[in-house]
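Lecture 7 notes: from sequence to structure.
We start with the chain below.
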Amino acid sequence: MQQHPPAIEATDLTKVFGRFTAVDRVSFTVQPGEIFGFLGPNGAGKSTTIRMLCGLLSSSSGTARVGGHDINRDPDRVRQCIGYMSQRFSLYRDLTVAENLMFFGGVYGLANRALRDRTAEVMRVTNLAGIESHITGTLSGAVQQRLALACAILHQPSILFLDEPTSGVDPVSRRLFWELIQDLASQGTTILITTHFLDEAEFCARIGLISAGRLVSLGTPATVKASVSEDVFELSVGDLSDAIDRLKTDPAILATACFGPRLHAYCRRGAFTADSLRVKLGAAGVPATAIRPVLLSLEDAFMRLVVPAAQPAAGSSV
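Predicted structure tokens for the same chain:
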């Protein structure tokens, strides 16, 4: 079987602004037709990395190839083979849906029947048919996001960059948006997506976690979770803040994190059972109404891999 080259290949990709390193020697590949999730807190370097990969920003060092083109030597050719949807809605709000599509189609070099046919197709795919004459600024956030996606795929790019495309969108619309993404990937489109919704990351074939400009974990959602070799207990306690302070004193309890009204305690593997942890907490003055072991989720992995990695850089302007 013929081996296809990666659709995206970053090697020690670095971007420095003055004395601040926004992206620090990031390396990863994305295969053709793969959905790759790029996750991290605000200011971690996600958007800067995407801007470099899109040929919008040159790297300070390191290299990347997108669609076979070097981002520093051939940024124009990179931009020709990609679609990009920014985290901020960037279409013209005073134009209609059809006018936005026609405008961006013209920017991509489509014209006449090719433009009409392609516009009709993307409207069908993104479920925009029937609202062609609606003013874009009057649409709901979810519909605006679908329109932004339609504009990004008008020219049938082989690689699609989606920067937090479901931010501010309700859960049902997020699910529908992901169905569109999965359909595109099934047709061979390579997709790199950033998101703050960790449940969405489970839809990705692989994910990369970035913190303070550095890639701290890379793999399938399952392998990223498996890389955290700790036991997780979910606690129901009266005073979360007091419980967190008291639990810090036990060396076998490595960290804690709030999950709604409950507390997750990350413990050294094999250090506790639910019963022995209850006794330990009671002795520390932390009465718990319920304690149960839980499977480590992707959100737990994010807390254990990303948050500690960001702490050394807390004094800098990340």
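Points to note: DSSP finds eleven helices and 14 strands in the chain. The first strand starts at residue 8 and ends at 17.
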